[in-house]
Design brief:
Blueprint: H1 2-5, H2 17-28, H3 32-38, E1 46-52, E2 55-63
Antiparallel strand pairs: 1-2
């Protein structure tokens, strides 16, 4: 549905890492264990897939460089 309604457009899809892992496993025809070793999917990372003329092309998996200035803040941590 997303593809058919947005032909020729750039689309952002936000989803859980498990969905991304499943898509990558299917694309590369690899097991979950292989996926986790070769292509770990990090929280808040970006995975880019081009879909043109009915064919998917994975461009990047789990980009996270943009997160280098983000800190993990624990609301229970004492200052």
């Amino acid at each position: 549905m997303i593809l058919s309604e947005n032909d020729g457009k750039t689309v952002l899809v936000a989803t859980h890492g498990g969905v991304i892992r499943l898509l990558i496993e299917t694309y590369f025809n690899i097991t979950d264990v292989e996926m986790r070793k070769k292509y770990p999917v990090y929280n808040a990372s970006l995975t880019e897939v081009d879909y043109v003329n009915g064919k998917a092309n994975v461009r990047n998996i789990s980009l996270s460089e943009y997160l280098t200035n983000v800190t993990n803040v624990d609301p229970n941590q004492k200052k």
